[in-house]
Amino acid sequence: DTGVSQDPRHKITKRGQNVTFRCDPISEHNRLYWYRQTLGQGPEFLTYFQNEAQLEKSRLLSDRFSAERPKGSFSTLEIQRTEQGDSAMYLCASSRDRGNIQYFGAGTRLSVL
Amino acid sequence: EDKVVQSPLSLVVHEGDTVTLNCSYEVTNFRSLLWYKQEKKAPTFLFMLTSSGIEKKSGRLSSILDKKELFSILNITATQTGDSAIYLCAVEAGSNTGKLIFGQGTTLQVKP
Prior knowledge:
The complex is a heterodimer. By secondary structure, chain A is mostly beta strands. Chain A is built from no helices and 11 strands. In chain A, the strands form 2 sheets. In chain A, strands 2, 4, 5, 6, 9, 10 and 11 form a 7-stranded mixed sheet that branches. Chain A has a 4-stranded antiparallel sheet with strand order 1-3-8-7, with no helix packed on it. In chain A, β5 and β6 form a beta hairpin. Chain A is globular. Chain B is mainly beta. Chain B is 0% helix and 59% strand. Chain B has no helices and 11 strands. In chain B, strands 2, 4, 5, 9, 10 and 11 form a 6-stranded mixed sheet that branches. Chains A and B meet through β4, β5, β9 and β10 of A and β4, β5, β9 and β10 of B.
């Protein structure tokens, strides 16, 4: 059990650029979640996958955001045309099933200049 | 709208003190409440609570849930500098996704 891993740990980009983050969940975990955390706040839910199916998206997730989980393994979160308001920590979590503990990765800290 | 509120937002204590962190919630179809500790890395799991009145303990940390009054507390006894962190409370409720609704977190600083 190697835990949830996220890559990169830090990303600095200029406004208007596209960025992509990767999350590798704990193996055998069916559920994968993306959250966003801004300074001084708790994480906020963005989207959720059960295996390869994206089953829920928060209204926080604008059209510039897209997430995939091909083959139900790793997941990517892409932000197009980044804005300064996108600066945040993006956290990924996985769990075996509903009602089970969600284990978090260390996050990707995005800074949009 | 589902809501989780933590108090206090920040706390400074000295080593050896006992602290109590609070978490209240208003959600639809409560399923579970979880506590996480967040340092400069991944939030790490502490406790999951589903039933009222049953205390969960791990070393110097303990937590209990009151589903009638809709709150939970996290106690830390004999605090150490290594306890300095943000403590997050989260509730799983409502939908089938299992998504967590988090409070703002309590920032604990333990001074030597």
